[in-house]
Structure formats: structure tokens, C-alpha cells
Design a protein that fits this description.
110 residues, mainly alpha, 2 strands, 55% helix
């Protein structure tokens, strides 16, 4: 059963993330979690801040298809299952070069 498999997987990932975040919290270090399925993993409740990285939809599709070697159909199914965080603490537009993206990230004050 796919639903049971997904909930079991999400529960295991969430437990791992809680433990990992707690270790970093005790050390006083920051950590970034990159997760398309942030809502399903309950990351809003686990994290202090949310960063939304946005790109032009066609550019994002081309980048992800090239990175993951997937078809347009697979990409569309994958994106259909994702949601965008509401009221993120920061939003960064990623429509340029990698260097431009890193420059934008460097301007964010944690």
C-alpha cells in the first residue's frame, strides 16, 4: 500500500531530522534542510525559519529534468505532489547563474 509506505517513510525521516536538529541545537550550530516535501515531513514545526527558493517554472523544469534525468511527465507528477510554503521568512529568486544564487543567499541574515 503506497499510502502506508509513504507515512512510514515520512515518520522515519521526521524522527531522524528531529534527532539531527537536536544535536545541532545543543552545539549551537545552524542547519539547512532542503526538502520539497516540507509539509509532509512536518518541517514547519521542526524549524525556526523557512527559506523559499523560487525559479521561473519552465527554467525549474528544465533544470530538474537535466539534473535528475527524468521526462517531462515524471517532472509534472513530482511537482504536482509538492506544495509551496506559505509566509516563508525569506524568498530567493533563482533565475540566474549559480554565482548569482549564492550571492543572494549570502545576503540573508540568520
Amino acid at each position: 500500500n503506497d499510502a502506508h509506505s509513504h507515512s512510514t517513510t515520512f515518520a522515519a525521516i521526521k524522527l531522524y531530522l528531529k534527532e539531527h536538529l537536536h544535536r545541532h541545537f545543543r552545539r549551537g550550530t545552524n542547519i539547512a534542510i532542503v526538502a520539497a516535501l516540507w509539509k509532509e515531513l512536518g518541517l514547519k514545526e521542526l524549524c525556526d525559519k523557512t527559506l523559499l527558493i523560487k525559479a521561473d517554472p519552465l527554467m525549474a523544469q528544465k533544470r530538474i529534468q537535466a539534473r535528475d534525468s527524468i521526462s517531462a511527465d515524471v517532472y509534472k507528477r513530482r511537482i504536482k505532489n509538492q506544495s509551496v510554503p506559505q509566509d516563508p521568512d525569506w524568498t530567493v529568486e533563482n533565475n540566474g547563474t549559480l554565482q548569482e544564487f549564492y550571492q543572494k543567499l549570502a545576503k540573508i541574515k540568520l
